[in-house]
Design goal:
The protein has about 220 residues and is mainly alpha-helical. The chain folds into two domains: about 100 residues, no CATH class; about 100 residues, no CATH class. The chain is about 70% helix and about 5% strand. It contains ten helices and two strands; from the N terminus they run H-H-H-H-H-H-H-H-E-E-H-H. It has a two-stranded antiparallel sheet with strand order 1-2. The N and C termini lie far apart (about 60 Å).
Length: about 220
């Protein structure tokens, strides 16, 4: 019964879309009616500015991290962690309070990775920023749109590769390496789901890249 309550709470908490609320309050408009149609960090940055986007980012990150922390008080089952994670992501993408139209779940899924594989998360995020900075910075919105795409490709690969190395403790329970294959598979599964949910954004970025190459 406790687990069902946590799963339901994860979905309901995920359904609180701060991006929609802020845009309604500050701009008197629905952020989902412009741009990509997604209510999340990137759209908030374009509509309200980077300071509000930062607030939305950390709130969306907490949608998965806080329920997982609550679950950890009762169990460390990976299966239940994944169920709670999916509930939080589903709440963000299909929110009960906003006609089931929310964001793409990118930052909420990043929160899952941050909780499950924190060291691999940090390495993948840093590598994604570096790659986008060096290779893709000339395209529109490189941080808001290209970094997540690269990140969701890199994180499962880094997690899987880290499993071939003995765990190296970094701080407390945080370590790099020694991750079992099924944890990498779980990270890959979540990454694929997020990429599918945001396929329209990925396609537009690929078309943009092809267009830039043709112009050359």
């Amino acid at each position: 019964m406790t687990f069902l309550v946590i799963i339901a709470a994860a979905y309901l908490y995920g359904s609180i879309n701060l991006s929609v609320l802020l845009c309604r309050r500050l701009k008197h408009q629905d952020i989902r009616e412009s741009g990509t149609g997604s209510a999340g960090t990137a759209s908030t940055a374009r509509t309200l500015g980077i300071q509000w986007a930062a607030l939305v980012f950390f709130f969306d990150l907490s949608k998965s991290v806080l329920p997982l922390m609550l679950l950890s008080l009762y169990t460390d089952s990976l299966v239940l962690q994944l169920i709670v994670s999916v509930a939080a992501i589903l709440g963000h993408c299909r929110p009960l309070f906003f006609q089931f139209r929310g964001g793409g779940g990118v930052v909420t899924a990043m929160g899952v990775f941050f909780y499950l594989v924190p060291a691999e998360f940090a390495v993948s995020l840093a590598a994604s920023f570096l790659f986008v900075r060096l290779v893709l910075s000339r395209y529109d919105h490189p941080i808001g749109q290209w970094v997540p795409i690269v990140f969701f490709i890199l994180t499962p690969a880094v997690t899987l590769l880290s499993g071939y190395f003995p765990a190296a403790e970094i701080a407390g329970p945080v370590s790099f390496g020694g991750k079992p294959w099924y944890l990498a598979a779980a990270v890959l599964g979540i990454g694929i789901c997020i990429m599918l949910l945001n396929m329209h954004v990925a396609r537009s970025k690929i078309r943009e890249t092809a267009g830039h190459k043709r112009k050359k």
